[in-house]
Amino acid sequence: MNTRWLAAALLLFNSCVLSADQIRSPSAMSQSGPLMMRLIASSVTAANRAGKIIRDVMSQGDLGIVEKAKDDLQTEADRSAQRCIVASLSRQFPNITIIGEEGVSDIEVPSDWLITHGDPEILKKKCPDTLEDITEEDVVVWVDPLDGTSEYTQGFLEHVTVLIGISIREQPIGGVIHQPFWGGSSEDGAGRTIWGLQGFGIEGLPPIPRTKEPIPLIVTTSRSHSNSLAESCLEAMKPEKVLRVGGAGYKVLQLLEGTATAYVFASPGCKKWDTCAPEAILRAAGGSLTDILGRPYNYGSNVSRPNRSGVLAAPTVQMHQALTDLIPEHVKTTLKD
Ligand code: AMP
Ligand code: MG
Ligand code: MG
């Protein structure tokens, strides 16, 4: 095992808190409560509805695949799920900015795709003090209606997620990851939803049990978009194991569940809608996601969509710091601009 990683992970993982249970005492908070909680609550219901659309397209069998660019597919599920989410959020919050992977959406949608309410349990929770006063003009919502499209078309359904990331004044503050095929593809009990908010924590996953055992370096990375630079980075880091799975959302879930201890992708390719929700949730749980050099991404409405300098993430800030030290110089130099 890489000894530099081991020292950092051993020392620091045990002191981290991956809080998944920060339910405040329910207060009578209605649809007129703080914008932040209404937005998260409605993003959860919209993501769940989009997940059902994604399951329905799969069970009907005609995926309607379009090749947007090399190695970049779109299906009927991507298109319809985005229309559902954008129509639902823009009608409830007319002055927020919404940026979706599939471009500008037609928001005239079937009435049963239109979500008009937030998750009632989330609406009962207390908004963190620092987020009580945000206005719709402060908000940019980044939507990846179906993260892991390659895997969706190839039947790796567990890798598929719906991502709704909420940035406030350019920072990734809140996020929803919905996994529509978790638990199987039948409608009974299919799917789970994880959400997180800065100053609140996360819900939808149990905390990782603390351990005094050494934490192995288990890297999760792309299964369908790797290249020689990304591979040379992994090789230099000497991980104990490499997991190759689809989607930024699914890889961050692996970090939050403890299946992986690092997400490393030393390549351009991911976009802001891929990382906003996962980063917000990871941060709310005490972790960190940056570019491969350890620099944070910015999520304002005018930023460039591609994350040109890769992705590096870990379930604690300290493990993330240890990872940045393991990235070889030639990788940092190649991706720094
Ligand atoms: P992956 O880990 O390969 O599943 O990628 C995570 C997200 O970034 C997915 O939404 C991919 O579509 C996107 N992505 C990563 N690399 C590329 C690439 N070379 N071309 C297009 N999309 C990419
Ligand atoms: Mg994606
Ligand atoms: Mg997508």
Overview of this structure, please?
- There is one protein chain.
- The chain is α+β, with helices and mostly antiparallel strands and about 325 residues long.
- The chain contains ten helices and 13 strands.
- The chain has helices at about 5-15, 35-60, 75-90, 120-125, 150-155, 230-235, 250-255, 270-285, 315-325, 330-335; strands at about 65-70, 70-75, 95-100, 140-145, 160-170, 170-180, 190-195, 200-205, 220, 240-245, 260-265, 290, 310-315.
- The protein has a six-stranded mixed beta sheet, sandwiched between helices. A five-stranded mixed beta sheet has the order 10-9-11-13-12, sandwiched between helices.
- The longest helix has 26 residues, at about 35-60.
- The radius of gyration is 19 Å and the shape is globular.
- The chain starts with a helix and ends with a helix.
- Mean pLDDT is about 90; it is low at about 10-30.
- The structure holds adenosine monophosphate and magnesium ion (MG) (2 copies).
- Adenosine monophosphate binds near residues 72, 247, 269 and 270.
Kindly list the characteristics that best describe this protein.
5-stranded mixed beta sheet, single chain, binds adenosine monophosphate, 337 residues, 6-stranded mixed beta sheet, 10 helices, alpha+beta, binds magnesium ion
User: Distance N terminus to C terminus?
Assistant: 31 Å
Number-wise, the strands total 13
Ranges where pLDDT stays below 50 over 5 or more residues in a row are: 11-30
Structural class: alpha+beta
Helix content bin:
25-40%
Report the average pLDDT across residues. 91
Q: What is the count of helical runs?
A: 10
Biggest sheet strand line-up: 3-4-5-6-7-8
CA-atom Rg in angstroms: 19 Å
Q: What is the string of helix and strand elements?
A: HHEEHEHEHEEEEEHEHEHEEHH
Shape: globular
Strand fraction = 15-25%
Name every ligand kind in the structure: adenosine monophosphate, magnesium ion
Largest sheet, if any?
6 strands, mixed
